[in-house]
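Memo to structure team: turn this sequence into structure tokens by end of day. - J.P.
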Amino acid sequence: METRSITAEVPAVPRMSEDPAALVPELGEVSAALFKAVGNGSVPRTTVSLVQLRAGQIAGSTYLTVLHTTFLRQAGTSEERITSVASWQDSPYFTGAERAALALTEAVLTPSACAERVSDALYAEVSEHYRPKALATLMFAIGQVNFFTAVALVAKPVPGRSFTDPWN
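Reply from structure team:
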């Protein structure tokens, strides 16, 4: 496997020259359904964006971290909250519900060699902050960003380009 030197510049073009959504237009319906499900209002949009930013960080996707950072800035989220998502465990900028959502995100997306990823204790803690519909929505928000993580890591759209058209 060939690896790029850490000091080499990263090209400002997508790895995949054609937009995957153009190649597989059926993706549009799936994407729209995911956005509709996650945007049902049971979980604050800011919480969804915090979760999805953390998921992008865990996946190591610059595209997703830039995208969700942009969404949070557009929503008026403070720079302190945005920059401390990576170290949320000891940050004073998050509510209990947001902390529970971030903990769930990390548990789902971080493999564990010796334990169940989402323990009963974590599930109980998250359930204290989210009613069943909101908890299901939170699961889908984590799944939604994870769905697009494969696109971000394989096709490598250019960070900072429009979410609706990162190939132009």
